[in-house]
Every structure is written in C-alpha cells, then in structure tokens.
Specification:
The complex is a heterodimer of chains A (about 500) and B (about 100). By secondary structure, chain A is an alpha/beta fold. Helices cover about 35% and strands about 15% of the residues of chain A. The model of chain A has no long low-confidence stretch (mean pLDDT about 95). Chain B has a two-stranded antiparallel ribbon. At the A-B interface, α9, α10, α11 and α12 of A face α1 and α2 of B.
C-alpha cells in the first residue's frame, strides 16, 4: 500500500490505530512534494521543518489520547490567501511576496486544534482573481493529470496538490467557483459551504460578500469531516452565522431514495462540451437508479450571473485592495516623490495585470454617475438570481449540473481573452451570489483523460443534502473515491 | 464596441484606483473596460424596477460586542511587516510642509 493513496480520514484511522506514524505520513507527503514540485508548482511555500516538528508534537498528543479528531496527524495544504502566523502568505502576489502574518486564520486554527500538520501554502491566481492559476506572480501550476493543461483556479495549487498526493487534503476559498472549478479540473471533491459557515477571519479578502473557505479532498467523507472541523461561529467575522446543524458526518448515508433533484435545462445549452454533458447526465442516471427523482426544469437568470458578479466582485475588490498601500505591510516602491506617488507606484508595481483590471472596473462602477447604473443594477440582479433559486428549491432538494462547461484548457490559452475565461464560471458564479452551498464531485474523464466534475447545489444551510447525494454517487460503481493522479486506484 | 472609454475617464479611474498606468497600459485598459461594460450592459435587458438592491443574502444586522479591548498594545507585531518604520511608528513620506 502507498500511503499517498489514502484519503485523509483513512490515513487518520491508520494513524490512530498505530499502523502509520504522523511523521511517516508527513515524510511521505514531503517526498512527493520534492518529486512533483519541479513540474507541478502547486506550492508557493513548503514548510518542511515546521511540518516535521509539528508531526512529532501531534504524535505525542495522539499517543497520550489527547487528539480525538479524525484529522489528527493528517498533513494538509493551505491556499496562500489564508493567514498563517510566521509563515509567508503571499496571495500569489508580488505586493505580498514578503508578508509573514502575525496571526492565523480562524479556519486554520480550527484545523490546528484538531491536530492538523500544515505542509505549506498553495499557489493560486493572484488575490484569487482568475480561473486557471496562471495569474500567480510565482508561475503557473500544472494539472497533475496532464501537465500541458491548467489545474483551474483560483485554488489551483490546492487542487493540484490534493490530486497528486502532495498533501492529503487542502483548504481553498471560493468567490465565484474557485474551489469547485479547479476541483472539477483536477478530479477531486471540493465543497463551497453556505456563506457565513466558515469564519473569514484571516482570509485575505477579495469579494467579501461572496468569499467562503471550504475543503478540497479525495473523498466526500473527507470533505464532510473537514467542513465539520472548520465551521464555527466567530464574532471576529461579522457575517459569521451561528449554526446548530454542523454534524455533517451524520449525512454520510448511501441513501437518495425519494430525493428530488432538478436538472436546469439552461445549464445544458450552447457552450457545454459534449463529453462533459455525457458524463454529468450519466451521473444523474446513477442517482436515479439509486432512488432519486430526477426532473428537468428551467432555472432562469443564468446568463446574467456573470455580468452581475463582475460588477459586485470588482467593486468589493477595489475597496478591499485599497489597503495595499506600501505603508503597513507588503511591497513599497524604491523611488517616489511624496505620499500619493508612493501609493500609486507601489500598487502599480506590486499588482499584476488581472488584479489591476478588476480594481479599475470596480473603481469605475462605484464612481459617482455610474453607481446606480452598474453597482445597484447588479445588486438588483442578484436579488432576482436569489429569487430564481428560491423558486427552484421550493420544488427540489438539489440542483444537478456540470461544474464547468469544459475540462481543463491548455496552459496559455485562457489569459489572452479575459472575457472568455470569465464565461467558464457560468455554472458556479450564481451560487456565490445567492450564498448557497455546492459541491463538485468527479464523475468521469474526457477522451484525453482529463477529469469531469458534477456540481450539486443545495439551498442555504442544506450541506447535508449535498453530502448525502455526493456520498451515494461516490459509493456507486462510477464513484471515484480516493482516485489520485499517478496513484494505484486509477483504473 | 458600444462603450468607448475616454482618456479623461481612464485618467479619473486611475486616480480612484490609485494606479499609475503607462500609455500602453492605458490603451489596453480602455479597450478591456469598454468590452467588459458592453458585456455588463446585458443586465439592462432585465426589468429591475421595484426590486430592492440585495447586499446580503441573509438579513444581517450590525453585530455588536462589549467595548472591551481584546487585541490591544501589540505594536511590535503590527510593525513587523512595515516596509519602513521609525520610533515605533509606520514611516511615510512627508505629507505636510
């Protein structure tokens, strides 16, 4: 048995049973990082020394019976927009290239309390703005299934690390699909929780009304356990929701009998790759065979989600990113004349092209004269999108469709046309606008061997329905639990 | 392209965004923003009269806590990442003559 083929929870069980030590698991992941990083570039920072030291600490806790969590001792990778005290946190941007936070994100603290061993920080699109991980200031990440292709984004490093066995699970963040779309492209499971479920304290903000942290792993069970661990009410995040139904493990039942699942016709129209379509509809058949009631319907509003999103997300980004001014942290330009010139020059040299593009669009739509026409119009559209989902969830437990219209594109083709890249988020973006939970589950490969993901969407606070259906699918013959690029369970 | 971004507009956006653009970057920005706004103008197909702008999906209210200092007096940590500091403060270029 190769340790790297274990899911996070399976590894946790073996650690607890004394079959594998925490150090062995950590060393196995670090060896895999050494082997794969020269090509994949999933990580911005690998903290080998810290991870090994922590591994021994956690082992001691486990030996004393002080670490009960299923994740105790399991090595994890964190997206590089999650603050980690004393460990470089760059957001894959030149402007934060030397930033070592003095505090740790709440979600990460929750993992640490559960005995997590942090391996390092993963590559991403700069400030999570992008869909391919190619806007990173530290080079693109490669898709572990085919190195000529992108891993998706913006949590591309986290997904690539999970898919290749460079870690056993990871955290990502999702503002418009940034957990689900790269999970789909990398053949792993990624869950975006209901807005407010996981504290955003210590998550470097992009679009605050849309951002949410979530798990990325090689099984639905892993995602349920990780979500249960990181979800918490936190007064330091004013949008945090005090939830009482956080026992997500209870939803791991292979039972979808009578579950009503709607398939939006408007998710299967023009622009959807035929191979993706076939894989997703086949997955729907699997759920039907297991007792779910599947029905087609018209969701509506689909084409308006992307324009509304780019107005809202860019507006929030322009405000959030005004904190990077070369004074309190981050990059400061070398030569300048006066304070304002220092601000402008530091920001212009520190931010990459895509980030500047969105800051400018956001500044424009918030400026007087355009605020009503663009920003308020987008917020009204958001209300209509929410209404469309409300109507759907009055009839269905879940919505099922593709996560992305295609499998992973080749490196280099997306950046030349930003608008086209934005269109790739058509199925994921509306979920953030409506604050809903959604999961991407691997459901096959295209003829080139690139993974396809099915997206399940639930009403607010209904993660258990997502987990139940995703778990039932994973238990079927078509399920891909534990599948890893280069692993033994591939075929 | 229906939306033509003028030199004055891109100049103004640069001021708001606190970004300094080269002439070449300005031309690219004008083109990109025009294209994006053309695309965003699709929203005008929607009748949104009588629809309240939705900032938050859930009815979120102000969250209050007791006015007690919990993370005070942490000067050393706060300055740890400062590009320049002096006498326990952030150092910036002279702002008043």
């Amino acid at each position: 048995m190769d340790i790297l083929d274990l899911t996070a929870v399976d590894l946790g069980r073996k650690i607890k049973a004394g079959e594998i030590t925490v150090r062995e698991a950590t060393e196995a992941a670090l060896r895999q990082i050494k082997r794969r990083e020269p090509v994949l570039n999933s990580y911005v920072t690998v903290d080998e020394e810290g991870a090994l030291k922590r591994a021994d600490q956690v082992q001691e806790q486990i030996d004393k019976g002080e670490a009960a969590s299923p994740l105790a001792g399991v090595p994890v990778a964190l997206k590089d927009n999650l603050c980690t005290e004393g460990i470089l946190t760059t957001c894959s941007s030149k402007i934060l290239a030397n930033f070592k936070p003095t505090y740790t994100a709440e979600a990460v603290i929750n993992l640490q309390k559960a005995g997590a061993v942090v391996l390092g920080k993963t590559n991403m699109d700069e400030f999570a703005m992008g869909s391919t991980t190619e806007t990173s200031a530290f080079g693109a990440t490669k898709n572990p299934w085919n190195e000529d292709h992108v891993p998706g984004g913006s949590s591309g490093g986290s997904c690539s690390a999970v898919a290749s066995g460079e870690c056993f699970y990871a955290l990502g963040s999702d503002t418009g699909g940034s957990i689900r779309q790269p999970s789909s492209f990398c053949g792993v499971v990624g869950l975006k929780p209901t807005y407010g479920t996981v504290s955003r304290y210590g998550l470097i903000a992009y679009g605050s009304s849309l951002d949410q942290i979530g798990p990325i792993a090689r099984s639905v069970e892993d995602c349920a356990v990780i979500l249960e661990t990181i979800a918490s009410y936190d007064f330091k995040d004013s949008t945090s929701v005090a939830r009482k139904d956080k026992d997500f493990l209870s939803a791991l039942a292979d039972d979808v009998k009578g579950m009503k699942i709607g398939i939006p016709r408007d998710y299967f129209g023009e622009g959807l790759d035929k191979e993706v379509r076939d894989c997703v509809l086949k997955a729907a058949e699997v759920l039907k065979d297991r007792g779910a009631v599947i029905e087609e319907f018209d969701l509506g509003m689909v084409k308006y989600a992307i324009p509304a999103y780019y107005v809202i997300a860019s507006a929030e980004a322009s405000s959030n990113l005004s904190r990077f001014d070369g004074v309190k942290y981050g990059y400061r330009t070398k030569e300048y004349e006066g304070l304002h010139h220092m601000y402008k020059k530091s920001r212009s040299e520190g931010f990459g092209e895509e980030v500047k593009r969105r800051i400018m669009l956001g500044s424009f739509v918030l400026s007087s004269g355009y605020y009503d026409a663009y920003y308020l119009k987008a917020l009204r559209t958001k209300a209509l999108i929410k209404n469309a989902f409300d109507r759907a969830f009055s009839r269905y437990d879940l919505i099922l469709g593709p996560t992305a219209p295609s499998t992973a594109p080749k490196l280099g083709v997306s950046l030349s046309d930003p608008l086209k890249m934005y269109l790739g988020d058509i199925y994921t973006i509306s979920v953030n606008l409506a604050g809903l939970p959604a999961i991407s589950v691997p459901c096959g490969q295209d003829s080139r061997g690139l993974p396809v993901g099915m997206q399940l969407i639930a009403d607010c606070f209904q993660e258990k329905k997502l987990i139940r259906a995703a778990y039932a699918y994973e238990q079927s013959d078509d399920g891909q639990r534990g599948r890893r690029a280069g692993g033994q369970r591939n075929e | 392209m229906a939306n033509i971004i003028s030199d004055e507009t891109i100049e103004y956006v640069g001021i708001l965004a606190k970004l300094e653009l080269s002439e070449e970057e300005k031309e690219t920005a004008k083109r990109d923003m025009g294209r994006m706004l053309d695309y965003i103008d699709q929203l005008n197909e929607l009748d949104t009269s009588g629809i309240e702008p939705m900032s938050h999906v859930f009815p979120v209210n102000n969250v209050f806590r007791e006015d007690v200092v919990t993370q005070g007096d942490d000067r050393e940590n706060m300055l740890r990442n400062a590009p320049e500091q002096k006498d326990g403060a952030f150092k910036v270029p002279k702002t008043v003559e």
